[in-house]
Amino acid sequence: MSARRWHDTRLGTLGLGLAFPAALALVWQAAAAKGIIDPNIWASPWRVALAVATQVQDAQFWADLGASLWRDAQGTALGILFGVAGGLALGRSALAREYFAPTLDAAKAVPLFTWVPLLSVWVGSGEAGKVAFIALAAAIPVLFNTAEGVRSLEPRHLELTRLYHLEFVTRFRRVVLPGAAPGILRGVHQALLYGWLATIGAEFLFEAGNGIGTNIMGARELYALDLVIADMLAIGLIGVAFDLGFGRVERSLLRWREDHRA
Amino acid sequence: MTQDILRLNAVSKNFIVDDRKVEALSGIDLTLRPGQFTALVGASGCGKSTLLRLIAGLDVPDSGQILLEGTPIHGPSRACGLIFQDHRLLPWLSVTQNIELALAGTKHSAQERRALALASLDLVGLTDFARAFPRQLSGGMAQRVALARGFVNRPRLLLLDEPFSALDSLTRARLQTELLRIWAHEGTSMLLVTHDVEEAVLLADRVIVLAANPGRINATLDIDLARPRLRSSAELAAVKAKILHWLDDFAAAA
């Protein structure tokens, strides 16, 4: 009915979103050019752009990025697996809920990074520790959101499983899983972001190895702050890609929730 | 002599409300003959939905016996279908998948299930919506899908728990006609719970009137009016008035 205003259009939204960083870059660049800020400490946008060009051509950068993504994939996949399984059990069984929920709620209040020393000792501070840390970061949102999703199943819908004599597999595939899907997917969405953050965190906090986090540390040692910022941009870009990409997956899997009359 | 499709012997059911025992149903005796359309009417709170849930096997009576085709029931049975007041379709399954769900535990292959579901959908005239999700349907269409699901595994007895009460009067009238058409076509025995006396008289061969506190059978009336019946006919109005009068008397006596 009402005409869309220019900032409601796709291009308008994108332009508006980019306006602030663009303005910031301009001011920053101008300040660096005028000598107001020390360009060695505050890498100018232009130098960052050059650093991005350097990194894009650097095999080490791509190797590190690949290592981080692979680490992230392993940890997040493990976390989602455990999170979904635990969340389903927690959501379906009142006994499991009463038994585990207080402990889990308490554990949730402990900051994630405090697990690093323990995990280093238990699992090792190398690759295994990092993957375990990422898995833990990813599992927590999946666990709680899955349990919430399962609990939100309506008794009147579950009653159908009795009426139609649905066996365990059908009941799960047709009723419990899709009914809990909004919660599960919300959890997985958060897990993708948390897992990626935890990947970079693990590379900082555990034993040095490869990865984009290590790449940043290396650049810092060289005082190459332009490279540090270039790496940060890459990390952020990947996070945004996860967010937008999975948002699409979520919408397409939850098509049934959309209201449009036939 | 044909066997009764359903027989209830002295069925009673109590609920505990605020630590007090409340008699929901007391000493219900009831016999349904195959192919017959029976309606249960009564004021709200007379336990008619409870009675239907007992027959469907979703709840268990405290005393008495429920025999479906001569056999005591143990939980829900495929021989007995149930249609709820709300359409109760799963929002994440398409119309066809929802109907197929009623066949999930049967021996039919996936193709046979699909074919049966589509045939049942055809019965209610909604083949064009086979792939739609419930949220895309109007209330009347969703309830027709629920009917298709109720009929898909050919139950010998179909229980209907105020299936049209949430619909507007025009849609309700259309679906009543549709239900009669399917009933004539399938020959299923029907047990309809309703608080709409006109609906009961229009559809049923026999109307059973329940009284409340505790829920019990108070009167039974055979409706001998010829079919198709006209909502506006004087005979129908007379029968309806008689039943309404009874209901008033029970309410006054209570």
- Pattern of helices and strands of chain A: HHHHHHHHHH
Taken as a percent bin, the fraction of beta residues of chain A is: under 5%
Q: Strand order, main sheet of chain B: write it out.
A: 6-7-8-3-9-10
Number of DSSP-assigned strands of chain A? 0
Q: How many beta-strand runs of chain B?
A: 10
Count of individual domains of chain A: 1
Round the mean pLDDT of chain B to the nearest integer and report it: 91
Describe the structure.
The complex is a heterodimer of chains A (262) and B (254). Chain A has helices at residues 10-33, 45-56, 59-92, 94-108, 115-122, 127-151, 155-163, 168-205, 212-221, 225-253. By secondary structure, chain A is mainly α. Chain A has a single domain (44-255), classed as MetI-like (MetI-like fold). In chain A, helix 3 packs across helix 4 (94-108). The longest helix of chain A has 38 residues, at 168-205. The relative contact order of chain A is 0.12. Chain B has 254 residues and is of the alpha/beta class. Chain B has 2 domains: 6-79 and 157-253, P-loop containing nucleotide triphosphate hydrolases (Rossmann fold); 90-154, no CATH class. In chain B, helix 2 crosses helix 3 (110-123), helix 2 packs parallel to helix 4 and helix 3 (110-123) crosses helix 4. The interface between A and B is medium-sized, with 24 and 27 residues.
